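=== RUN LOG ===
request id: a7f3
mode: sequence -> structure
chains: 1
length: 239
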Amino acid sequence: MITILKKEFNSFFSSPVAYLVIGVFLLINGLFLWVFKDNFNILNAGFADLNSFFYLAPWLFLFLIPAITMKSFADEFNTGTIEILKTKPLTDWQIVLGKFAASLLLVVIALAPTLTYVYTISALGNPIGNFDLGTTFGSYIGLLFLASVYCSVGLFTSTLSKNQIVAFILGICISFFFFYGFDALASLMGSSDFYIKQFGFNEHFKSISRGVIDTRDIIYFLSVSFFFLFITKKQLEND
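=== RESULT ===
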């Protein structure tokens, strides 16, 4: 697994993928949060919190994480290197988990510079340091769980086609449905909306973002991640 992780991680930085993903993520967040004079601008909000960032980040991940994962297996199938990979002393689980860990690690690296935002809102608080650390910490944890399910979905869609663009589009569509689709369905269902929302990523992300780490939310994210990784493994066995 470690071998696959290193190979995959190095491949990200040997191509423009990693630099583009990290750069676009930080650039868009920086522009919306600090430059553009709109509702997301923290300096114009009048109070020190990162709600705007934690609203934007899941939507950016929705596009950027499939861009990270789209080549994971699609490129292996397209070039035929998947056969070479399977001949090595590695189990299918080690291959899948190695690629998953590499993708998630790249997301963590993209998130790391945004910790400077925490220092900034702490300095902007009145008095200094007057911000809700619990919700901020919980929101970062929620983003990591959300990134993990996006990565698992992206890996699965990467096994469905040799074409990276197809894998990218499928990854966006499935992730979008799980993130927002159940909320949209809930708005049409009336009294049963609470139960429908529980199937979606967004409801559990918002729950963790309140600063209370509920085991139900953790189990949900871990279960969904495992499910998509499991069907990724099954798809890999069949190819």
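=== NOTES ===
The radius of gyration is 19 Å.
The first helix runs from residue 2 to 13.
=== END ===
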